[in-house]
Structure to design on (123 residues):
């Protein structure tokens, strides 16, 4: 009986990790250029603005780790009540950038308490 515990636990782990959802591909978005343009200061994210508008729905229902794998670490994040979290990625240069503006467009991703992307918008 003791001999069957380890193989069955190993099998359960394999099944659990193999059933995860694959990351989507975001057409028209160069991940390395997106990640390297922190706060949008380099203005390379502006060239991908229309692509992110079209592809933003692919980010829905992804968890926080998957979003970070796709888009890199957020430029800003906020924790709200009931464990909601917001990730912000600036498309236009952020106010912290030279020549930045307080009305800069940004990609906003709202995560629910479970950690899944509930809303994705460009503001």
């Amino acid at each position: 009986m003791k001999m069957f515990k380890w193989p069955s636990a190993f099998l359960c782990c394999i099944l659990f990790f193999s059933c995860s959802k694959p990351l989507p591909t975001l057409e028209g978005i160069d991940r390395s250029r997106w990640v390297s343009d922190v706060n949008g200061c380099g203005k390379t994210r502006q060239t991908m603005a229309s692509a992110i508008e079209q592809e933003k729905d692919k980010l829905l229902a992804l968890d926080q780790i998957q979003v970070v794998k796709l888009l890199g670490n957020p430029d800003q994040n906020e924790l709200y009540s009931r464990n909601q979290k917001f990730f912000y990625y600036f498309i236009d240069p952020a106010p912290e950038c030279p020549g930045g503006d307080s009305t800069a467009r940004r990609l906003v991703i709202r995560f629910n308490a479970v950690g899944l992307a509930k809303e994705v918008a460009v503001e």
